Each structure stands twice: as C-alpha cells, then as structure tokens.
Amino acid sequence: SIPLGFFGGIGGASKSGILIKGSNFLEALNHVKYVVFDKTGTLTKGVFNVTNIVPKGELTAEQLLEYAALAESYSNHPIAQSISAAYGKEVNKEVIGKYEEIAGHGIKIEVDGKAILAGNKKLMTKEAISFVEEAAIGTMVHLAIDRQYAGYIVISDEVKEDASKAIAGLKALGIKKTVMLTGDAKKVGEAVGQKLGLTEVHAELLPHEKVEQVEQLDSRKQKDEKLVFVGDGINDTPVLARADIGIAMGGLGSDAAIEAADVVIMTDEPSKIVTAVKIAKRTRKIVW
Ligand code: ADP
Ligand code: MG
Fold it and tell me: Is residue 38 annotated as a catalytic residue, yes or no?
C-alpha cells in the first residue's frame, strides 16, 4: 500500500501548480542529483525580439523580413512567433506551396514558386548554401531564395529572472550538476550558461542528440541518484520520456509532452523544481 503521506505531498504540490503523476516520482525527487534543462522557453523567456535584419543580396530588409514571415507562418516555434510579430502584418498564405519544418534546423517552403530556406547554419550546411558566419550575439536565422543566400535575421531571447533563482535553489539543495541542452548556437548557449552559473552546456544538438546527452549523463550517475529533465515540450518529448523524471513546463507544452512527462509544472517558473524537491523531502519526513 502507498503511505498516506504521499497523497498529502502530491496534493500540496498541486496547490503550488506542480502536478506529480504518482508517488514513485515524488519519492524519486528525493534522490535528484542531475538537473538537465532545455534552453528556449525553459531557462529563457522563449520570446525573441528581432534585433537586426541583414540582407546580403538585392532584397531590402523589409523584403527579407517578409520572406521570413512567410516561411515561418505555419510554424509554432518561438522563433516563428517572434518573426511574425516583427513583421506585424498578415502574410498572404495563398502564395505558399510545399512546406516542411525540420526539427533543429528550420523551414523549407515554396513561396510564389520560389524555394525558400529559413533556419540555422545546420540547415544552410545541409543544403550546401554558403552563409555569413558572423559573431552576432543572438540566434541567427539565415535565408536563402532559390539556393541564393539572401541574408540573415538576428533574434535575441532573454534569460528568465526566475531561472537564476532556480539554479541557486538547486545548488543549495546539493544538486551535483545543472546542465543545459540546446539546439541553438554555441555562443548563445555559453552566454546563458555563464549568466546562470550552470555546470555544463551542450549546444547545437538535434532532438535525438539531446537524448544521447541525457544517456551519457545517466551513465555517470551513482546508484540511487536520479536525473531530471526539464523542458517546455517543443521538440523535447523523447528526452522527457528518457529521463528518470521528465518535467514539462509552462503553457507552451504540447499534449504529447504533457503525456510523456512525469511531472507537469503549470507555470513558466523553473524554480518550481526546487519547490517540488522540497515538498518531496518534507513528505518523506512524514512518511518514514
Ligand atoms: P532549443 O534546444 O533551444 O529549445 P530547438 O531544438 O527548438 O531549440 O531548435 C534549435 C535551433 O533550430 C534553433 O535555435 C534554430 O536555430 C533552429 N530552428 C528550429 N526551428 C526553427 C524555425 N521554425 N525557424 C528557424 N529556425 C529554427
Ligand atoms: Mg525547445
């Protein structure tokens, strides 16, 4: 039978906006030593602002932004939303033909019969388009039109204030490693890692490589140590499922992510993980 105290713990957690899908996960939270975070939308706000538009051809900045907005018009990635917001107008979807979104890369789309690519350096490399590898501080979205490089848009995200609180709280609880995994560029990842004082950052990862990183960390654990993965559910469902405790966060998460997660945080505050571990420890004292 399940000790009654566990229900108190789960109930208490739910009042704090933390849904724990079973007493085994509440117990496991006592043994967390590795906390692995996704970046975008988890440690950062996931609300990007366009900070620079740099055409490298005949297009004006406004035209480059319009192509980007068209390319992103079917995507629900935070990058897509920020580009649409910067464009600020409805795009004419009638001109859009074939469309494909490639996880961790970007978009391939037909606009007015032209082949448009919008994405990161992995997409450009994969499609053999030479591009400007400038040291912009921010996430670069490169564009190519009919295989001609057309320029790039720089967008910047901000670290959540609550993320610093989360990392400090985890350290105070004796967590061994606070790790961030991201599909974004190394420069961007390292800046966030430094700002938050994370112990490890792994960047430029595809969704399946995030799973591999979790597996590697997992193999470093000692017996009885648990690994948590925290993500916003965009492209990280496989990692959520692979971790000892998968935590889905915020309103952005998909149904699939909520399904794959063991714990769901209803707000967008990563510091709720600290709350969850504290509730687990308190519950344990009552049960044993
Ligand atoms: P993160 O790991 O930071 O949550 P993702 O795995 O969702 O990020 O995406 C990784 C990278 O892939 C992004 O930083 C971006 O460069 C590129 N990318 C993904 N989706 C898009 C998109 N819709 N448009 C442009 N670039 C994209
Ligand atoms: Mg993500």
Answer: yes
